[in-house]
Amino acid sequence: MDILHTQLANIQRQLAFVATDPIDWKLYVQAFSWSVTLFESYLLLRQYPLYSKTEPPAALAGHFSPDVFKKSQNYGRDKAKFALVSGLVKQCLDSSMLQFGFYAWSWGAAGRLLALLGFGPEYEILQSIGFVFILFFLSSIPTLPLSVYGTFVLEEKHGFNKTTPGLFVADLFKGWALAFVLGAPFLAAFLYIFKWAGDRFVPWLMAFMIAFQLIMVVVYPTVIQPMFNKLSPLAPGELRSRVESLASRLKFPLKHLYEIDGSKRSSHSNAYFFGLPWSKHIVIFDTLIQQSRPDEVEAVLAHELGHWFYLHPTKMMAVSQLHIFTILALFPAFLHAPPLLRSFDFPKAVAAQPPTIVAFLLFQMILTPLEAVVSICMNAISRHFEYEADRFACELQTRLQAEDMKDMGDRLGRALITLHVKNLSTVWVDWLYSAYHHSHPTLTERLKGLEAFQAEREKKKL
């Protein structure tokens, strides 16, 4: 532990200028955030002309009828327009709040609210919680019209929206309530660790973050998700028998097999698993069951179990923890930096002893361009994992010595095509746009990969 703290101290010495030099951090953040937004807009403009194509890629020509392909192109075009406009609107709002001292005002407003309740400035954690929720509510209200448009105009126009206005409002208030019920204790514990551990907070905070994530693995499906969707045991039948048999053969620790009413809100479909290492749960959207045959749904779940077999969630969590560790290792230099807060319009009295939550929020803003790069890297890792999971499904016949699995790759390919057709997913994708935005390979890439995996398997038999 002493070696770790020594290395962290060396990093802080390299960043000592942050606490002394009068850098115009607001200008940097404005420039960084606008650069990322404009780059994302550029990617949309690269992608947009592809929605004018009149035919799908040759590999998909036999699977998309002219009418379905036209609908897919129109849906993609409308989503791209909305993403471009909403991205610029959100950036303008964020930039205005930054430029006109909204963050400093919010900290002061939280302090005044606590004063009315009889609490002074020494209650920093309480003021920090108030500060975060003032920011959260006041910044989310201006973007509500965009959410309404996306749900009731865009998704409605293309036949996907199943959300009623009443359900939309109920979800909104449930989300706000959950943000407070879960967010306030989390934030209090997060900030308490800073106060308790001092500048040696990094390993303790890492342990807390990992523990919180493990707790949420249990709490989300059992407490949170049932507030929004109904999970019912999958009805007996061919699909249940196939999934249970597959899980048993792979020694997947399946505890519950659920069907979720995804159609309550949307026609889009999916399937996933969650849980602790010794107790897993599989959830299948009712829309997927309606849109695909049981053997195709089994193939989708074979792909998902490939993620489990290769420990992809654990590996991704490890990468995420490394990312968090890097952020926390750099943060102490910004935690004790009055010039940082002064550049964002905070009063001298506040900047002299920077509140932890304020310094952390501003530090996150400074990391904006780095986070964009990290996002690209995480997508690249995720796409590699998707190929591995596809290969796993193709190799089940050999792995399990099961003749009934020999066509698993073909079934998975059919299932992927069905999902793309029913969801009107985009099939023409610019490579740079995909690298930045997509955590999965494109449909064409995955079908080519499945063909290669199956050809490789057949070659090994010779």
From TrEMBL:
Every Peptidase M48 domain range: 237-452
Q: What is its main location?
A: endoplasmic reticulum
Entry keyword annotation includes Cell inner membrane: no
Question: Which residues constitute the catalytic centre?
Answer: E304, D390
| One Gene Ontology molecular-function label | metal ion binding
Taxonomically, which superkingdom?
Answer: Eukaryota
Which interval of the chain is the signal sequence? none
The keyword Zinc is annotated on this UniProt entry: yes
* GO BP terms: CAAX-box protein processing
Enumerate the residues binding Zn(2+). Answer: H303, H307, E386
Q: Which parts of the sequence belong to the CAAX prenyl protease 1 N-terminal domain? A: 47-230
- Keywords tagged on the record: Endoplasmic reticulum, Hydrolase, Membrane, Metal-binding, Metalloprotease, Protease, Transmembrane, Transmembrane helix, Zinc
EC number per UniProt: 3.4.24.84
Q: Which Pfam families match?
A: Peptidase_M48 (PF01435), Peptidase_M48_N (PF16491)
Cofactors per UniProt?
Answer: Zn(2+)
Family matches, as InterPro entries: CAXX_Prtase_1, Peptidase_M48, Peptidase_M48_N
Q: What does this protein do?
A: Proteolytically removes the C-terminal three residues of farnesylated proteins.
What protein is this chain from?
Answer: CAAX prenyl protease
User: Which species does the entry assign this protein to?
Assistant: Lyophyllum shimeji (Hon-shimeji)
For this protein's source organism, the top of the classification is: Eukaryota, Fungi, Dikarya, Basidiomycota, Agaricomycotina
